[in-house]
Automatic annotation (TrEMBL):
Binding residue positions for [4Fe-4S] cluster: C194, C201, C204, C210
Residue ranges annotated for the HhH-GPD domain, each copy included: 44-192
Domain Helix-hairpin-helix DNA-binding motif class: 115-134
Recorded catalytic activity of this chain's protein: Hydrolyzes mismatched double-stranded DNA and polynucleotides, releasing free thymine; 2'-deoxyribonucleotide-(2'-deoxyribose 5'-phosphate)-2'-deoxyribonucleotide-DNA = a 3'-end 2'-deoxyribonucleotide-(2,3-dehydro-2,3-deoxyribose 5'-phosphate)-DNA + a 5'-end 5'-phospho-2'-deoxyribonucleoside-DNA + H(+)
Organism field: Halosimplex carlsbadense 2-9-1
Gene Ontology terms, MF aspect: 4 iron, 4 sulfur cluster binding; class I DNA-(apurinic or apyrimidinic site) endonuclease activity; DNA binding; G/T mismatch-specific thymine-DNA glycosylase activity; metal ion binding
Name of the protein in its database record: Endonuclease III
């Protein structure tokens, strides 16, 4: 298997450095032009591809342009408007309810604190971190999505399993000025090379320091299970 660097901090810094070389343009892939659109797009992206979200929001953002628009929406019509999105019925309710909270408690503006954001329906810490980072340029943590979860474990950076525990474990070892970008670098690499089911380790710029590298290791540290033969 690949040989990780002596400490988690050294391993993480090397991973970040190499991935910046590989993906110099890594950034958020959701389309938005203001904080409300960002909030809506991130809420819709849960268990759904960014590509599909971007396609759906082209028309959605023309029809609903303010928190009031979502608050006053007919939830069944809103559900139809996001019909291609995974769990669109639940997410329509989240959008309407969150719109009402934003209007009633925040003068129609998306809030700018972790506490207030996570009080919105359908918004957890991961979503709130994205809003703060890309809407307000406030970096309080690391967004842990499925790519970050998978790659951080595969690369031996963490052994934690839950997103909240992974974030807490990453904060001391990821350089603070990279907290925002660590997510996008791992997402880029997770989509291009280190996929969930069949990673292309032969083309991976991290293979020599990856303890999960196929051909060298029998086990995928992301799942703890043996690689498929």
């Amino acid at each position: 298997m690949g040989t990780p660097l002596p400490s988690r901090a050294e391993q993480t810094e090397e991973v970040v450095e190499r991935l910046w070389e590989e993906y110099p343009d890594a950034t958020i892939s959701l389309n938005f032009s203001n904080r409300l659109e960002l909030l809506v797009a991130v809420m819709l992206s849960a268990q759904c591809t960014d590509e599909r979200v971007n396609k759906e929001t082209e028309d959605l953002f023309e029809k609903y342009q303010s928190a009031e628009d979502y608050a006053e929406a007919d939830v069944e019509e809103l559900s139809e408007d996001i019909g291609s999105i995974t769990y669109h019925n639940s997410k329509a309710d989240y959008l309407k309810t969150s719109g009402q909270i934003i209007v009633d408690e925040h003068d129609g503006e998306v809030p700018d604190t972790m506490e207030e954001l996570t009080e919105l329906k359908g918004v957890g810490r991961k979503t709130a971190n994205v809003i703060l980072q890309h809407g307000y340029d406030l970096v309080e943590g690391i967004v842990v999505d499925t790519h970050v979860q998978r790659l951080s474990r595969r690369l031996g950076i963490t052994e934690e399993e839950r997103p909240e525990a992974i974030e807490e474990d990453l904060l001391p070892v990821v350089p603070e000025d990279e907290w925002k970008w660590y997510t996008h670098l791992l997402i880029s690499h997770g989509r291009a090379v280190c996929t969930a089911r069949n990673p292309d380790c032969s083309e991976c710029v991290l293979a020599d320091i990856c303890p999960s590298a196929k051909g060298d290791s029998d086990v995928d540290l992301a799942s703890g299970e043996a690689w498929d033969a």
